[in-house]
Amino acid sequence: MSDSEDDIPLSQINNGPIISKASTLILNAAPIDDSTPDPSEARTSVTISASQDKESSEDSDDIPLTQRKQQLETEKTLASDSDDDIPLADKRAATKQIMKQESSDDDDIPLAKKRKVQAKAKEVPVSKVASSPKRAASTVSTPAPSKKAKKDEVSKKKLKKEEEEREIYRWWEEQTSQRAGDNEDGGDGVIRWTELSHYGVLFPPEYVPHGIQMKYDGKPVTLTPEAEEVASFFAALLESDHGKNPTFQKNFFSDFREVLAKNPKNPRLERFDKCDFTPIWHQFQLDKERKKQLTKEEKLKLKEERQKIEEPFLFATVDGRKEQIGNFRIEPPGLFRGRGDHPKTGRLKRRVYPEQVTLNLGKESPIPPTLPGHKWGKIVHDQQATWLATWKENINDTSKYVFLAPNSSWKGQSDMKKFDKARELKNYVDKIRASYTADLKDKLSEVRQRATAMYLIDRLALRAGNEKGDEEADTVGCCSLRYEHVTLEPPNTVHFDFLGKDSIRYENTVQVDHQVFKNLKLFQNQVGEGHAIFDRLTTTGLNKHLNSCMPGLSAKVFRTYNASFTCQQQLDRLTNADDTLPDKILSFNRANREVAVLCNHQRAASKSHAQQMVKIEDKIRTIKYQRMKLRKQLFSLDASIKKKRPDLAEDESDLDDDWIMQHDIDTIAKEREKVQTKFHKQNEKRKADGEPLQPDSELKDRLAKVEDLKVQLDKERGGDISVAANMTVHKLLDRIARLDDRLNATKIQATDKEENKEISLGTSKMNYIDPRIIVAWCRSYDVPMEKVYSKTLVQKFRWAQDIPDDWKF
DNA sequence: CGTTAGACTTGGAACAATGTTC
DNA sequence: GAACATTGTTCCAAGTCTAACG
């Protein structure tokens, strides 16, 4: 293996913008069906589309960006109005191949049958049990006194675990027909439960005034507790982005003044810029510090107190089964943290009292107690609903709900239903693609717009894009795209730039089907700046049509389908059975990343990312440096090794003399400092213990040793290699091998980190990738599940674990 | 029909817990 | 063992989509 080669990807990855990756990926994942019903009529555009697909699928095979650009440019110059002159001899074949691959995945056993595969079901508990004795065995070596206690603890844990295991409702093992939600015609009229009881919701504690005064115009002012609370909400955010956002400030101040005016004891504060919340802010900083300083015991005690309060709220009983509840807390009052350019951001979100809360309970269930002096707003018995409690929030007048946790049967069932639906789309997608491709030329602009939108939703995994009001942030999805969000570059390149959900920017450049390009141009010209491109299309209309293509189909299913499809495809492509575990994990992360890119799941890069990269690069070099030294020792012991192991004769890349020099200097400096702090610390301890101090000569001796090291390093740099007396060739080879492992692992880590800096993997893992894909992958490549799923995700996807080894999406 | 309400999924950021390193 | 980085969890805003409404 050559180091220089290995280092290439990291730097290159940097250059590859997400955009191009995303576009190639999707076009690749979604081959166009070139068997249009009417070949003579469809020839031109269909041919083109096929050829484009071919090209873009080539793109995806890691052609550097620069080359891709060239390709694009050549195409530009080549392209003329007559579409016919593009040769396509082998291009069809390529498209076919992709299609074939897709349909060969199509080993679709009817879903109903698949569910019954339970051979694995028994294995889960077995492996659990097997792991427990192992743990018990490892405690045997511990000292006698604690032995018994530990053993007790272990068996207790084991028991608890087994009990938990028994308590799990394995709904996925039951006859499908018994389950709600399996109903083809959606969830309407479905009874979800017959018995439902829970302890209601947990209210946040009443406000406790701190008495710290804010200042106005430089002078401290006294506020009523109610006003102080609101001032404190803002004070806490003083240094955050929200606190600095003018809209946030304006909205906060207007609501703050309203609260102030409610009580004549409050001062009149006219101007925001005269307010000074820093005294409160400082107090909060202090509080945080103090909280951090608490001892372990104190923290534990606080935690226990919290848990004791929560305990009754944790579970609900549904038809006799215990189910975990997700969010049983009423949201505390605060300032509304709207995202992006939300016109209401900063407004006061008021405290919620029991009178505003509706509980959903079984008729027979006891009504839980609530805050003293209060009563519940309403008690209902809605057996079609899965919410346990609901209330209205005052900012946007929208409903908030308490639901069961993600590991519950209700959530699990609808999750499974969602993925099964996406999987079902596989069987329809070719037909649907053919049909919208044909519709791209429909005379009815309504139909044509719908087809164009479907193309985008399918190819780019765009969201549907419902209408939004003036009181919300201006964000869009497919149906609500406006003129200015799309830039067209002939012959068929489209630039997208708009704010999507959560005001996350979607920026992408794609080559599209010629007819799509023409349509977009036409629509744009018809509407003009500031107007919706698809002016005849609504999400409702689109979904109605989709539903007629396949029962239960809606726009979001395409996102799920394309995400899961991509993941399956990438995992198959990237993983090798004989890879090391870290390599497999890297492959997994890459597949996961492809999906995240496709769905445009972003995160803010950490402020220290660049520094962190420098640090890790330095770590890599340090390992290489150590390796180099070992190599040299090896050759000085036995020169013949050079011939036997030519791989060891090669120099480490990017280890130049300057770096080595600097590294040695740094090493010495660090060593010196270490010696000194250690010396002083020891003396401080001695002082505290009343022991005699170590003399300064001791420090000098130790520092002299550092100097010896320096001399040795200098000598080694000069080519003078010293080998320890007891060192052997075998030992050296062994050490080098271990360094190589470390080097490899660190490099992988670096690559992963860089590729990941602005991409958030969590959302796709949690919501878009069919967990059965991942479970099957883990099994066939012998990767422990915990390496890819956190504890909670394992629980959430329990239903996905009883599948055959060869399960494919 | 278009509009709104309601219920449920999806999403990034903040926060907490845990792991790593000096 | 404290400081830092990483990972996992919680929070709650912001979507989707269907049903009900007028």
TrEMBL record:
Residue numbers annotated as active site:
768 (o-(3'-phospho-dna)-tyrosine intermediate)
Q: Which UniProt keywords apply?
A: Coiled coil, DNA-binding, Isomerase, Nucleus, Topoisomerase
Which residue range or ranges hold the DNA topoisomerase I eukaryotic-type domain?
335-782
For this record, an example GO cellular component is:
chromosome
Q: Does the keyword Transcription regulation apply?
A: no
Q: Which residues form a coiled coil?
A: 729-756
Q: Matching CDD domains, A to Z? A: Topo_IB_C, Topoisomer_IB_N
Matching InterPro entries:
DNA_brk_join_enz, DNA_topo_DNA_db_N_dom1, DNA_topo_DNA_db_N_dom2, TopoI, TopoI_C_dom, TopoI_cat_a-hlx-sub_euk, TopoI_cat_a/b-sub_euk, TopoI_cat_euk
Q: Where is the composition biased (Basic and acidic residues)?
A: 150-159, 676-690
User: Which Gene Ontology molecular-function terms are recorded?
Assistant: DNA binding; DNA topoisomerase type I (single strand cut, ATP-independent) activity
Q: Where is this region: Disordered?
A: 30-159, 676-699
Instruction: Name the domain of life this protein comes from.
Output: Eukaryota
SUPFAM superfamilies, per database record: DNA breaking-rejoining enzymes (SSF56349), Eukaryotic DNA topoisomerase I, N-terminal DNA-binding fragment (SSF56741)
Its localization reads: Nucleus
Write down the chemical reaction(s) this protein catalyses: ATP-independent breakage of single-stranded DNA, followed by passage and rejoining
Q: Does the keyword rRNA processing apply?
A: no
Give the family per the record.
Answer: Belongs to the type IB topoisomerase family.
What does the protein in this record do?
A: Releases the supercoiling and torsional tension of DNA introduced during the DNA replication and transcription by transiently cleaving and rejoining one strand of the DNA duplex. Introduces a single-strand break via transesterification at the specific target site 5'-[CT]CCTTp site in duplex DNA. The scissile phosphodiester is attacked by the catalytic tyrosine of the enzyme, resulting in the formation of a DNA-(3'-phosphotyrosyl)-enzyme intermediate and the expulsion of a 5'-OH DNA strand. The free DNA strand then undergoes passage around the unbroken strand thus removing DNA supercoils.
Protein name as annotated: DNA topoisomerase I
Q: Which organism is it from?
A: Absidia glauca (Pin mould)
* Gene field: ABSGL_04746.1 scaffold 5764
